[in-house]
Design a protein that fits this description.
two-stranded antiparallel ribbon, 10 helices, mainly alpha, about 250 residues, Serine Threonine Protein Phosphatase 5, Tetratricopeptide repeat, 2 domains
Length: about 250
């Protein structure tokens, strides 16, 4: 704020002192004149910048609240048919589609998980289709291609995420890339610690260690399975596996 101070000045005729009040500017005063000058100088850039922000906000709102929900619904409708054939172990049909199916809008040619993943990549269903496509390819012996799709799945589901990672381990095992398989089995075991997927992938990792004749690490992994997940189905015969690797590795 400005404040008034008293200032004594001498009147020229008669040297009679006169008290005048003078405004003193404060450092907190807003220089409105300066702001006006700045706006006038830059008003074109400010106007265009504001319009750009509004345009971005409008595009984002359209994408999030209109376009994306519509895409998600379409992807879900397509995935319904692919999922049906997947559950019947018809992996090639689930993967590639191509069959005529009946919908509420009439007959159509169904999409497979490959096309769903490619055409609806922005949606959750499209991203999940990468997982299903990878499993279909794994089950039909196309291991390298399976790895490519499985690596594109980035979901965090407690069950699906570790299974997707473990499936990459399975594909590498089929390709005789045992070190890679072990890496992904252990990653899958740690991805989501639970009584269903963790013991499964610990057992697979231990078995893979055996294939490399690394009986010490196999023993450590089997013993972890026994100690931490003793009630799991994978641990039912773990004592037999422990005895086997001790014998093969001459471990006391």
């Amino acid at each position: 704020m400005s404040e008034e101070i008293e200032q004594i000045e001498q009147v020229e005729n008669g040297n009679e002192p006169v008290v005048k009040k003078v405004k003193k500017s404060s450092s907190n005063d807003v220089d409105f004149g300066g702001l006006e000058f700045f706006y006038e100088k830059n008003k074109k850039a400010i106007t265009y910048g504001g319009a750009a922000i509004l345009a971005i906000a409008a595009i984002f709102s359209f994408y999030k609240f209109y376009w994306l929900p519509g895409e998600e619904k379409e992807a879900g409708n397509e995935a319904f048919f692919a999922q049906t054939y997947f559950e019947k172990d018809s992996f090639l049909v689930a993967l590639n589609g191509g069959l005529n199916v009946q919908t509420s809008e009439g007959p159509k040619t169904m999409m497979g998980f490959k096309d769903i993943a490619d055409n609806y990549s922005a949606t959750k269903t499209g991203r999940l289709a990468n997982y299903y496509a990878g499993i279909c390819l794994l089950r039909t012996g196309k291991f390298e291609e399976a790895i490519g799709y499985l690596e594109q799945y980035d979901g965090k589901d407690e069950m699906v995420a570790p299974v997707a990672i473990g499936a990459i381990g399975d594909a590498n095992m089929e390709l005789n890339k045992v070190d890679e398989a072990i890496k992904f089995y252990l990653k899958a075991a740690e991805q989501s610690s639970n009584a269903f997927t963790t013991p499964l992938f610990l057992k697979k990792a231990a078995f893979a260690y055996e294939q490399k004749a690394n009986y010490t690490e196999a023993l450590v992994t089997y013993e972890r399975l026994k100690n931490e997940y003793s009630k799991s189905s994978e641990a039912r015969e773990v004592d037999k596996y422990i005895a086997r690797v001790k014998t093969l590795g001459n471990i006391q």
